[in-house]
Amino acid sequence: MTQRFTAEALTEYARAMFLSAGLREADAALVAGDLVKANLRGIDSHGVSRIPMYLERLRRGLVNPRPNVTLTKVAGAVAHVDGDNGMGFIASDAAMNAACDLAADMGIGLAGVHRSTHFGMGACYALRAIERGYISLIFTNSSPAIPMWGGRTTFLGASPIAAGIPGGKHPPYVMDMAMTVIARGKIRLAAMKGDPIPQGLALDVDGNPTTDAAKAFEGVCLPFGGVKGSVLGTLMDLLAGLFTGANFGGDVKSLYFDHSEPQNVGHLFFAIRPDLFMALTDFQARMDTFYERIKELPRAAGVDEIMLPGEPEQRREDQRRQGGIPVTDNVIADLTAEGARVGVAFPSALAA
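The structure corresponding to this sequence follows.
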């Protein structure tokens, strides 16, 4: 069962919870806004359901609630960001903005991040760059979730890649995908609800195929596209982890199971001016032409409309801003209990 809540109510609850954990006002608002943005876009695996897990890591001292995020310019168009083991949202926001600032002067900007943690929904940073008028690429590594091709134990992270390209009068291109067949967070959400998962997504700890979400979450997620997903996951680990000075090669600590020390996740953010090879108006017109052409393509059987990546999520956001964000009863129970610990009431649902 689900109940619906306004984005504003969930954001205020999340902000209050992170303030109670010691985050600065601006940082608490940033994290809360990004989590609810994920819910609005239908990426509920990266939304408010993650609050208890983040708070637990803050309570254990594995995440610094008030990090001193530092940015060092290491080359003409390149910055290195030290996240000081704070919430990954904070360091990543600084890095994406730094990359855009560098691109304004140099045409392209690159920011690498180390000593970070899970940074939420990658599309948040692509959307920020789009708001500022830039093309973006976002890489991250993460804790072991999938095997190297040919292996049977976890080694590479789900390590999503995100990208954004501003549009003209039509919606922008926004891509965000993990190297797993589905995001590992969605398997976690299914496990929380007690729902099964389809065959072919994961193996249990003994290497057997499973449809039990809890066993899958403790076991091995399978890479999408077989060897291709494994190869891309390797690239994410090498560029976002090894290259930036973060943990890599199976050393990123699990967000869910490992409370021994900070994660030291690595991220890499590219920002590119869209007017490097032509006038901005020409670029925007070409994006409009591309969008209009895909709308006119012959559709496969059963398909009502062909959409640009990011368009379904934007439509879902528009719907949920009007009709509310659905939250399952088990997540409501977890969030209500977390709030009771610190005297923060969970909001009331919208009338059915």
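Residues 222 and 288 are 36 Å apart (CA to CA).
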